Structure formats: structure tokens, C-alpha cells
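Action item from last week, closing it out:
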Amino acid sequence: MATTQSADRSGHASVKTALRVIEIIEIYAQEGRSLTLTELSRLLDAPMSSCLGLIRTLVSRGYLYETGKRQGYYPTARLLHAALRIAHNDPVLERMQPVMQSLRDATGETVVFGQLQDNRVRYLDVCESANPVRYITAPGELREPHINSIGRAILGMSSDDARDRILDKLSLSPDAAHANLARQALESQLRQWREQGWYPNFGESLADLGGIAVPIPIGDALYGLSVAGPLYRVQPRAAEIVAALHAAVRTLGSHAMRDADPLTPPPENPA
């Protein structure tokens, strides 16, 4: 019994240490400057002693360096080089990134690629618009699937059993009766959107945000690809954006996709 408890504590400590390292990386990304041990301790809300051990380890591994005497620490380029090597060898994103860039250029809006993980949409890659007024997000962000265009696209193309398992865990309304009605309405909309071949989010997750997505089956996994931007630009151009998304799917090539229902051509007036 004591051995099991010791192992549990050791495992918990390892997870906590890993989380601290990730938090340090995210803090540097947010702050964009050298940070002293005192600042890191405050931003992490962790004891100085714990931070000191982490910093020394990261310095010894070449991921941090001291910018000057008592001036603090900053990440070296080693982290960037490791991330680039990882990204370059990603079997899915390597195929998707050129398509996303072309789609971004064709529509002038931000393009997002994502997947359902633990009943939420996880953004895997983002190709941001160059427009001064644009949708800004980042890989790793999480979204609720029932009000997100990518989530809706994946739900719409999922099997009945898979979709039911996800919807069973979503809180569509705090009131049970309303939740049942909301689910029925969502399921009806998903059938409609599947028939038309594209899935919208017109101001439902954020008041001024418009998004249009299509499902992307790759191998045995379902992904979603969306074009998102200010609602006043996206909604009036829905037919044009849907056509660009369909072209992107065709560009990916049938060899990269498992059998799925063909996406229907966009309607003349989808808005």
C-alpha cells in the first residue's frame, strides 16, 4: 500500500513539473522579455525554490540563458529549432499547411484546422489573415463544438453513435427540458448542414465572428477546416468562401481521404 501511494505521489509530481515547464514557455510567449527568478515565481504562483530548480535545469539543457547579471533569463533558439523540426515532420499538418495558405490567400480571411478532442474542438493549426481587422486565434485553443463551425462539421459527419456520445456530454442548457429541445434543434440543423455540404457559425460563438467549415476525413480520423473572420465580411461572401473550401478539399486529393459523403456544390445564395 505504501509503495502504491509513493508511486502515485511521484507520478503526480512528474505531471506537475511537466506542467510548470509548459507554463514557463507560455509565460515567455506572453511577456516577450527577459524575466528574473522573482518575476517567474510570481507569474507561476510557485515557490522560488521550485522555480530555481526548473530554471537551472532548462539552462543546463540549453533552453534558457541568462541575459545579463541579475537581468533575468530568456529562451534560446533551441526551443524554436526543436519546434520547427517537430512541425516539419507532422504527418497531417505537412499536407494541410500549403492548402491552408492558399485558402487564406483566396479568401483573405483566417483559416483554421482542428479536431475534436475530449468533446471540445482543439485548433491544430492557424493560418492568419493579413487583414488589419481579422480573426485572431492560435493552435491549441479549445472551443465548444456545438457553436463552432469546425465542431459542427465534425459532428455532422460523425456516426450516429459517435455524435450521441459527444452530445450526451455537452451542456446545451442548464434546464433539462430546454436542453432536450436544444439538442433536437441542433441535430436537425446538423442534418440540414450536412445536406448543404457546409457548416456555419454566424455570430453564435462571438457576436461579430463569422465562420464556415467543412469536414476533412483523413485516414480514420475526422478533422474540420474553416474560414473565419468578421461577420460583416464572411456572411455576405458565404457562397464564395464555400466554393474556396470545396476547392481546398479537392486539392488535398482523394488518396488522403477515406470514403465519405461527397460535399455538395455551394448554393447560389447560402446566406
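Closing note: The radius of gyration is 22 Å.
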